[in-house]
Amino acid sequence: MKKVLAAPYLVWMVVFILVPLIMVAYFAVTTADGAFTFDNLAAVSQYANIFIRSIWLAAISTVICLVIAYPLVVILARINVSYQSTVLMIVMLPMWMNFLLRTYAWMTLLGNNGLINMFLGLFGLGPFRLLNTQGAVVLGMVYNYLPFMILPLYNVIVKIDKSVIDAAHDLGCSNFQTFVKVLLPLSIPGVMSGITMVFVPAISTFIISRMLGGGSNLLIGDLIEMQFLGNSYNPNLGAAISLVLMVIILFIMVILNQFDDDEDRVLM
Amino acid sequence: MSKNIISLENIAVSFDGEKVLSDISLDIKDKEFVTFLGPSGCGKTTTLRVIGGFLTPDSGVVKFDGKDITTLPPHKRNVNTVFQRYALFPHLNVYENIAFGLKVKKVPDNKIRSRVREMLELVNLQGFEKRSVDRLSGGQQQRVAIARALINEPKVLLLDEPLGALDLKLRKEMQIELKRMQQRLEITFIYVTHDQEEALTMSDTVVVMKDGNILQVGSPVDIYNEPKNAFVADFIGESNILNGRMVKDLLVEISGVCFECVDTGFGENTPVDVVIRPEDIKLVEPDDAHITGVVKSVTFKGVHYEMQIESYDHTWLVHSTKAAEPDSTVGLTFDPYDIHIMNKMEG
Q1: Mean pLDDT over residues B101-119, rounded?
Q2: What percent of chain A lies above the pLDDT cut of 70?
Q3: For residue A234, what are the contacts with CB-CB under 8 A and spacing of at least 6?
Q4: In a shared domain, residues A170 and A90
């Protein structure tokens, strides 16, 4: 019976996850004619700067998301439950709107003639170049992926027994010590899944960097897209870049999970 | 007598406009086992939280050893707590949990190690150091929680219904063990419970609370034998509570019959509550008693039989080692000193 119920999922996983993965790997190590080669993988190295930029921007965005989300969630977990759901709802609200639309909105806000520069202009400031900068890309990532940091963090922190916090105070901890010795270690599973949920999509995004970063802040996502849809059509190279990206993410996740408890593995 | 270790002076606490503690004053003596006893919602846990520092009262003063500590945060008080559901740190093992307080105080490692060993011995958990706390039974978690609090050598240990989650047999064992610990360590235990038997077994002093007020403070014997009002009498063990009238000093009328009693000072012709413990009532031949009744039910309770006996205006609860015949008519007598007279409760 169990086997019968598992079958659809198994078929799904094989057809839509396993097979495509094998195809990506196959394309990555073959030429357009199907001959085996390491040239594609070797060619990836020339894009090292783009890889570094992507990892860097995604990492910054993840850290900013964490820094914004953590205090919010700690406060949220303490207030009245009915307020909690209202705030969570507001957090989720932007996600109901189309991703492209949300990002477009930032373009009009950040542009040289955008709302922010107009407002600053009232005080004789600017215009500042806000759009087409790395800062704008990071802003776009943080704005779009913040809910993915808040929700897993919230789910973990709200379940931490309040009396454990009381116990820490009781045993001589100041607020800061309570945070370091009890709250933070107990919330690590939430932190880890939040990091994963933000970092992975952020590192491979291409829309955000295209719209807010201009042409000069190319990310891996843009690079891969160009190999498949752009004028530099080369699916084999695209597959090789994807493969390298996957290995990098895998590697980073393995490192991150070293900080985690042995019991609460997240997405690994 | 020994000095006061904790004094509560006119403590009042409200949550959302609702009074939880109304103007409570209480002195707790050093090295005493004090129990706050009352039904849920009576304010006993709130009082404990005020003493622990988790709650700042709206008004009133908390004194520790004569010093005002009303606004002192918990981590600066020489008081430790055993929480209701133990509140052990799930990310730490037994050793780390117990060592927690000393680690925070930056006590040297070798000192911590020997202190933890002492504590494990005190609570009978030798060899459990490396065990993860969620692989312990309720009773073992309880012991870790006690050890974790006691390692800090508090002058006062607060215990918030610590035995609530344990089964009856384990609870009885722990009651005796806790009492022994308190005597051995010579510190004050402040214990919160709704279980009257637990309170009577362990305490030097019982504080009976209801609706945010203290009704009575006294030794278990005093509380049991001389309850101040019908609520205390009813809450501390089973009781027959009757409407009576104090005719004059040493004479009380119950069910239309006058009885000699030992109480004075209630005035003349005053309505009073009369409490008679079920074990103080003796069953005799109907002709030998002023009050007679019909035996409605007889239940075997192990040590004694519990009987419901219906007189014309009251159903009496009687405990006796001899069972009466159901549906028979019996006489009820009691001695003057078993009649407890108390003022009618206000409201």
Answers
A1: 95
A2: 97
A3: A32, A227
A4: yes
Q: Is CATH 2.40.50.140 what the domain over B238-343 is classified as, yes or no? A: yes
- Residue from the list B75, B88, B152 with its beta carbon closest to the beta carbon of A169: B75
Q: What is the CATH number of the domain that holds A136?
A: 1.10.3720.10
Among the partner-chain residues B54, B105, B148, the one whose CB lies closest to the CB of A166 is B54
B323 token code pair: 């069972």
Please state, in angstroms and rounded to a whole number, the distance separating the CA atoms of residues B29 and B205.
9
For the whole model, what pTM was predicted?
Answer: 0.81
Please give the DSSP secondary-structure letter assigned to residue B88. -
* Domain count within chain A: 2
Are A61 and A140 contained in the same domain? yes
Contacts of B55 (CB under 8 A, 6+ apart): B13, B46, B49
From chain A, the residues in CB contact with B74 under 8 A are 166, 169-170
User: Helix H segments across B203-327?
Assistant: 220-225, 230-235
Q: Does B271 touch chain A (CB under 8 A)?
A: no
Average pLDDT over residues A121-126: 84
> Where do we find the tokens 């637990």?
B198
Q: How does pLDDT run across B219-230, given as a tens digit for each residue? A: 999 998 888 888
Closest listed residue to residue B281, CA positions, set B259, B263, B300, B302: B259
Higher confidence at residue B278 or residue B346? B278
Backbone angles phi, psi at B334, to 5 degrees: -155, 155
Q: What's the pLDDT band for B182 if we cut at 50, 70, 90?
A: very high
Rg (CA), chain B: 24
For domain B4-230, the CATH architecture is 3-Layer(aba) Sandwich (3.40)
Start-to-end C-alpha separation, chain B: 36
CA distance B312 to B84: 46
Is the bond preceding residue B271 a cis peptide, omega within 30 degrees?
Answer: no
Does residue A135 share a domain with residue A101? Answer: yes
Tokens of A168: 């820490």
Among candidates A169, A170, A186 on the partner chain, residue whose Cβ is nearest the Cβ of B91: A186
Chain B residue with minimum CA distance to A160: B90
pLDDT at A260 over 70: no
Looking at CA atoms only, how far is residue A244 from chain B in angstroms? Answer: 36
Is the ipTM higher than 0.90? The answer is: no
If pLDDT is split at 50, 70 and 90, which confidence band does B90 have? very high
Residue B250 pLDDT exceeds 50? yes
- Per the structure, the complete domain to which residue A14 belongs is given by 1-37
Q: So what's the pLDDT on residue A23?
A: 93
d(Cα B211, Cα B42) in Å, to the nearest integer?
A: 4
